[in-house]
From TrEMBL:
InterPro entries: CENP-X. It is found in: Nucleus. This is Uncharacterized protein. Keywords: DNA damage, DNA repair, DNA-binding, Nucleus. GO terms for cellular component: FANCM-MHF complex. Pfam families: CENP-X. Its main location: nucleus. It comes from Rhizoclosmatium globosum. GO terms for molecular function: DNA binding. GO terms for biological process: DNA repair; kinetochore assembly; replication fork processing; resolution of meiotic recombination intermediates. Belongs to the CENP-X/MHF2 family.
Amino acid sequence: MSFNPDTIQAIFKQATNNPDFKMSKDALPVSCELLTVFTTELVMRSLQQSMQRRNSLHKGKGPESEPVVIDVGSLERVLPQLLLDFN
């Protein structure tokens, strides 16, 4: 997974509300990499959380046969700790 540098630069430009916003040629790839790592970690933690939740809801009923679903709630449950860890 990776992010398009042009898209990331456009998002940063829009977020700053400054049409003259520019990033150095070194900062843009690093920002893309950081967003990739952050997103990957968010998905992995959400997957773990969803698996634990599924297992606790289906104790002794063979939860391995049911698919693991990552929903918005899963993302919201792990996001606060992830933001603290990346701070």
